[in-house]
């Protein structure tokens, strides 16, 4: 038997397996252990990699279900777990999910018309009237437990949105838990192209104060808000911006809305990452301005991202007072890094800061006037705002709006006296 024909010894197989594991880890994790001399000198990194390779070997050799032991499956799970351990917004994006993400960005994608929060699981904040979600009977407060066959408890808000969205005409199956009736519901909802007006429920009170609700920040939000202000029958004396249950949206939209109430080139928000990443400032744009009347912003625990940027900016510039509850605390920037195999890494690379350098991420925006209400009352107030058939006897007072009106009237009176 020649040397080339001889079977490999047990030691050779072990070394080969370990080297293979190290190579796989090196390539997939992007640590370039064997290419970067700085990493070669890092003893701690070597120890961690050896431990990982050892665990991988134990799993491959001993786990009961061999169908789950493909290297690609195990490595993707390891990478995803590593990223998710950093924060709830960083994750590994497999090839098929990244393709879907690109299609959503570049092409026409449909939704079902529900606004969802992830403060305590995936909870429906609002089924927008006239959309498939509302037609299917989805209600505020419904908790999403599954999206198709995927366990929603393991999903971030971004993951859930990606799975709920899809080509118009296709459908998505949602499993919902409704606490009010203690029942689990399964609903197949057809996707459609959803055009949701982001500025709604405009109402001018007898003293000229205008209250409007901003449900999300889209490309049209600033224009819709200008229209809501300019079309009032009498001049607006004060403005209440209600961003309760607003999950955020486009940063550019938040900048455009803030720009309406600030002089050109005032700082609205800035991002900072690690020291080598330059700070990026977002300044007030030119154009239409409303600089004379006072503003109050209503926030709650479901006001997130762009809604928090609006609230923090206007308060820091002394243009607004805040009423309600401490906001959600989503103020970070995610960057998508595409990999050679078509997968991607979504990683938090910077944080948003208000003009006074208050960090939003993990802290939220605390209002000037705290008005806490129960989750049950919050849902009922929201249903009343959606004009649901609730009898007068069942309606409850919107304490946060009442306080916002009180604060706005005080500020309007102070402006009048100063003039």
Provide structural commentary.
This protein has three domains: about 10-70, no CATH class; about 110-190, Pdz3 Domain (Roll); about 200-419, 2-enoyl-CoA Hydratase, Chain A, domain 1, CATH 3.90.226.10. The longest helix has 20 residues, at about 10-30. The radius of gyration is 26 Å and the shape is globular. Helices cover about 35% and strands about 20% of the residues. It is α+β, with helices and mostly antiparallel strands. The strands form three sheets. Strands 2, 3, 4, 5, 6 and 7 form a six-stranded antiparallel β-sheet that branches.
Alpha carbon gyration radius: 26 Å
Order of helices and strands: HHHHEHEEHEEHEEEEHEHEEEHEEEEHH
CATH architecture of the largest domain: Alpha-Beta Complex
For this structure, the CATH topology of the largest domain is 2-enoyl-CoA Hydratase, Chain A, domain 1
Q: What would the principal axes of the Cα set say about the shape?
A: globular
Tally the beta strands. Answer: 17
- Contiguous uncertain segments of 5+ residues: 1-35
Q: Mind telling me the CATH superfamily name of the largest domain?
A: 2-enoyl-CoA Hydratase, Chain A, domain 1
In percent, how much strand structure appears in the residues? 15-25%
Terminal Cα span: 105 Å
The number of helical runs is 12
Mean pLDDT: 85
Helix content: 25-40%
Number of domains: 3
CATH class call of the largest domain = Alpha Beta
